[in-house]
Amino acid sequence: MKNVSIVFFFLAIILPVHAERAVEVQDSWIRYIPGDRPMAGYLVMENGGDTDRHLIGVTSTAFGAVHIHETVERDGQMSMQPVDSITVPAGGRVALQPGGYHLMLMQLQSEIEVGDEVSMTLEFADGGSQGVVFAVKPAWQE
Amino acid sequence: MRRVIQAFALGLILLAAGCGGELTWQTRDISGMMPELEFTLTSENGESVSAQRYDDTVNLLFFGYTHCPDICPITLGRLRSVLDRLPADVSERVRVLFVSVDPERDGRESLRSYTDQFGDKFIGLTGSRDQLDALTKRYRTTYGYGEPDEQGNYEVSHGSAVYAFDTQGNARLLIRDQDGVDAIAADIQQLVQG
Questions:
Q1: Which residues contact B193 (CB under 8 A, 6 or more apart)?
Q2: Which of A14, A86, B29, B138 is least buried, going by the fewest C-beta atoms within 10 A?
Q3: Which residues in chain A (11-70) have CB-CB distances under 8 A to chain B?
Q4: Is B161 on the interface with A (CB under 8 A)?
């Protein structure tokens, strides 16, 4: 019992040093689109830690594939481009928001509707991951 | 003295009336710069329609596709906010014509279920590549398709602007991303009442 206590004591000291501080997520939501069509996911990430965090992927049991995308305008033409990673700078924030970076959510696995909540996992380049809950909002949400 | 003031007031009214033909707009005035609304397309009800079908309202024309999760719903959502802001007797004289430049994936069911998300003033249209080419060329815009991925999904590029036509079908305004809901609503109201 004493040994166990000692182990916990050391873990308590070591863990906060080695575990990356979680990115703080706000305003996470999905724009609902009916049918088997891609939907967009949005969120704001704030990094209160001392090192940059790089979002490299998102997984969810609700969707067969999730890509990171950016909407771009060139000469009045709109298109979307895949993005490999998004950096959340140390002490800074980055927004995936309408008209810019967004998650492209594809292959919906089972019906969802406005008002539902969908869980997803953010994957970072340093191996860290964290769960986020997204609120499903109507297609016309601004 | 009272007569002088009355004459002055009358003068101001006449002056204002005289200026009636020179309305000012907050979005871009394109009167005389683009041709009147003309097309033959297929509606979300599956019928072949021409622009005359919609000539009882002011029409807002936007090109997009329904596998577009971000910018198309943003633009349509903004137009919905504009319509919500207008008095009912004005908004009932406005339609939004959403032309899909992706006829391969956008059949009538697909179009209708997408436009229904925004309200009954939103009409989905599409057509053959020839019909779409004619219409996009007419308004000096274009569209294109990206390479399909393993699942056959592909991106579509399309114009970002919304074209506003008066009830005579004349092209009047170009509404762009940076135009706010209040500015668009004021212009549309002026277009309906003008």
A1: B90
A2: A14
A3: 31-35, 37-40, 65, 69
A4: yes
pLDDT tens-digit readout, B5-32: 565 555 455 454 444 557 899 999 999 9
ipTM at complex level? 0.86
Return the residue matching tokens 């990171």: A68
Chain B segment 97-126 residues within 8 A of A by beta carbon are 110, 113-114, 116-118
Q: Is B154 an interface residue toward A (CB < 8 Å)?
A: no
Q: How far apart are the first and last CA of chain A?
A: 57
User: What counts of helices (H) and strands (E) characterise chain A?
Assistant: 1, 10
* H or E element at residue B116: none
- The answer to whether A139 contacts B118, with C-beta atoms less than 8 Å apart, is yes
At which residue do the structure tokens 């697909």 appear?
B110
- How many CB atoms sit inside 10 A of residue A44's CB? 16
What pLDDT, in 10s, does the model give residues B66-106? 999 999 999 999 999 999 999 999 999 999 999 999 999 99
CB contact, 8 Å: A71 with chain B? Answer: yes
